[in-house]
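In response to the reviewer comment on reproducibility (Comment 2.3), we provide here a single inverse folding case reported in full, input and output, so that an independent group could reproduce the run without further information from us. The structure tokens appear first.
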């Protein structure tokens, strides 16, 4: 009887047959083209409550 080191693996084929069996599919994700130019940001002023929060005058007591 052979010991464990001398036994051949039955669960996994060896050699070139194994390489041809396990061909994985290539990734085919489509990448969108990046935006060339950012649209101009509108200057948005904070409202009354936002102004008070920025100055530290608004409290939630």
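Designed residues, in position order:
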């Amino acid at each position: 009887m052979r010991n464990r080191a001398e036994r051949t693996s039955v669960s996994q084929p060896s050699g070139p047959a194994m390489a041809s069996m396990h061909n994985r599919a290539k990734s085919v994700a489509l990448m969108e083209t990046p935006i060339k130019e950012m649209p101009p940001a509108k200057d948005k002023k904070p409202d009354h409550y936002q102004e008070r929060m920025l100055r530290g005058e608004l409290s939630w007591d």
